[in-house]
Fold each of these.
Amino acid sequence: MAAKSQILVETPSSASSLTPPMSISCVKELVESNTLITSIPSNYIFSTNLSDDQVVTEELPIIDFSLLTSGSPDQRSKIVHELGKACQDWGFFMVINHGVPENLREEMLNACQRFFDLTEEEKREYAGKHVTDPIRCGTSFNASVEKVFFWRDFLKVFVHPEFHSPGKPPGFREISSKYCKRTRQVAIELLKGISESLGLQEYYIDNEMKLEKGFQILAGNLYPPCPEPELAMGMPPHSDHGLLTLLIDNCIGGLQIQHKGKWVQVNSLPNSFLVNIGDHLEILSNGKYKSVLHRAKVNDKTTRVSLAIAHGPSLDTVVSPAPELLNSESNKPAYSGMKYRDYMELQQGSVLNEKTSLDRVRVK
Ligand code: OGA
Ligand code: NI
C-alpha cells in the first residue's frame, strides 16, 4: 500500500473488473523514491520508439513587442503584418522586448520549483480534485481517465478574473500575482495586434471575448529526469484551449511543435516568451489562424520546469467565428458556438489527445 504522505490519484479499474481502483503517485516521488530506477513502469510507455519521429530545428518567427506598443505607425503596421504571418504560417512565435523583467521570470520559475519541492503532505491539500477547482496539483494530465500516464507533475491555478494562489511556498502569492498581471498585459497587447492583422478593429477581440473578465490560468509543469526518455512523454501532442498561451522554461529544451508535418525542436531566445495560438482564436478567426499541436519531450539528465500562462475569453463568452470574417458564399462558419466554460471543462476533463476537443465544435 502507498505511503500515507503520497499524492494519490484515483485511476479507474476497467468496467468489468472487480479490482479496486489503483492509485499513482507523482513522477517526482517515483523518481526520488527509487534512486536506481533504470526503466520506467509500463503504464508510462507512451510509444515504443519516439526516436523514430522526424524532428528538425527551425527558427520560429520573432515578434519585437516594443514595436507594437511604442513603435511609429509604420513600424506598428509592419509588426502587425508580421504577427499575422506568424499566426497564419506557424501558430507559434517568440516574443522579445516585452518589458517583463528577467528577475521576475526567474523568481516565478523558482517559485514553481519550490512548490513542487513541498512535501507530499503539504501538496496533498491541492491534489486530485475537480477541474473547476481554482488550485489543483497532480500528475500526468488527467490521471483519473488515463490508461497511459505522462512523465509530468503539474500545478494549475486560476489567476484572473479572481486571483487565487496556494498559501505555500512563501512568496508564491506575491510573485505569481505580479507575474500574471504582466503576462496578461502582454497577451492583451498581442491580441490587439492580432485583431488588426485579421482586418478587425484593434479592440475587437478585447470587446467580444470580454477580456476585462478574461480567464487566465497559471500552469506549472515539472518534468523530472526520465531513465527511458524515448519511451515516455511529458505532454502528448495537443493544442491549448483559450486565445493565447505564453510559455517560459528553465532553459532545458523539451518543447516541440508541429509545423508542416514535422516536429520542430524549439530553442527559445533568452528572456523571450514562446507564444502559441489556442483553440478559441482558431474558432474566432474561422480557421484562418490555427491552434498548433505541440508536445513536451523528457530527458534523462535534468529536471525541466516550464510555466504556461493561458489567456482565454471570459468564462461566459460563447465563442463562434467572427461574423465580420464570414460571407455567405465562400467563407461559411466552420465551427459552432460553445460557451468557453463548457469547452474548458470538456477539454480539461478528457484524455489529452491532439485536437479532439476542437473536433467537437467543428462543423462537419
Ligand atoms: C502546456 C504545454 C509544454 C511545455 O502546459 O500546455 O504545452 O513545454 N507545455 O511544458
Ligand atoms: Ni500546451
Amino acid sequence: MRSVLVLNGPNLGRLGSREPDIYGSVSYADLVELLDSTGAELGLSVETRQTDSEAELIGWLHGAVDAGTDVVLNPAAFTHYSYALRDAAAMLTKGGLRLIEVHLSNPHAREEFRHTSVISGVATGVIAGFGVNSYVLALRQLAS
Ligand code: DQA
C-alpha cells in the first residue's frame, strides 16, 4: 500500500475552536479520522501529524525524502515566510516525489500578507479554500 504523510503546521492542532468562521468547526481529531477513512477508501496508508515547530516540520520533510513518501502539507503561517520549509519541500519535488500544498481557507481572499506563499513555487500543486475537503482532494489526486 502506498504511504502518504499529511503534515500540518502551527495552530492547526486547535482546529475546531480556532476562528471557526474561517477554518470551520471540524476538530483536528475529526480531521485525522476523516483522512484515515479517506485513505482506507483510496488504498493509501495515511499518517497525519501536526506541530507548532518549524524545525520538527522540516525534520518530517527530510524523513519523507529519505523514505520516498509523497506529502500533503498545510504549512499554516509558515506558508508566508519560511524559506527553510520551502528548501525542504524542494528536496521532495526535485527528487521526484509529490508535495501538495493545502489550505482550509483561501489565503488569496484574506489579508495581504497571506497572498504570498513561499512554498507554492516548489509544490507539485496547491488546493485551497475548501475546508477539510482540500485535504481529501489532495489525497484523491495522490491516489490517482
Ligand atoms: C492556513 C492559512 C494560513 O494563512 C494560516 O496562517 C493558517 C491556516 C489555512 O489552512 O487556511 O494557519 O494555512
